[in-house]
Amino acid sequence: MTVIDKIAWLCLAGGKVLGARSRGSDAFYLPGGKREPGESDLDTLVREVAEELDVAVDPGTARHAGTFEAPAHGKPGVTVRMACYTADHRGTPRASAEIEELAWLSYADRDRFSVMGRLVADHLHSAGLLG
């Protein structure tokens, strides 16, 4: 089995979480991406969020919110292991790089997420962070 190591940013506001949809995808993901060789979680978080959303994450405010494992969306036999972090940021998120659409998603939007996104949405909802 192949395991993809990813880092994600949980940008929460008003009981919703920011989701990103890549070009050609039918599901929303949590912003972030794959670690480059030698990168720490925070290095990856800062780089990926800057690339995808054109905002600067403040690594000094980053807090680990959980690490999750789920099947990769649309990739049989592939598992994603994703460390999720909350963190303050500067700037207004906007779609850039491979991102086609951003949306603020509530728990009622759970079915719009990838399998991993649904798992994290369940966790956030049970913690009272996702309405």
Automatic annotation (TrEMBL):
<dbReference type="InterPro" id="IPR015797">
    <property type="entry name" value="NUDIX_hydrolase-like_dom_sf"/>
</dbReference>
<dbReference type="GO" id="GO:0016787">
    <property type="term" value="F:hydrolase activity"/>
</dbReference>
<dbReference type="InterPro" id="IPR020084">
    <property type="entry name" value="NUDIX_hydrolase_CS"/>
</dbReference>
<keyword id="KW-0378">Hydrolase</keyword>
<protein>
    <submittedName>
        <fullName>NUDIX domain-containing protein</fullName>
    </submittedName>
</protein>
<feature type="domain" description="Nudix hydrolase">
    <location>
        <begin position="1"/>
        <end position="131"/>
    </location>
</feature>
<dbReference type="InterPro" id="IPR000086">
    <property type="entry name" value="NUDIX_hydrolase_dom"/>
</dbReference>
<dbReference type="Pfam" id="PF00293">
    <property type="entry name" value="NUDIX"/>
</dbReference>
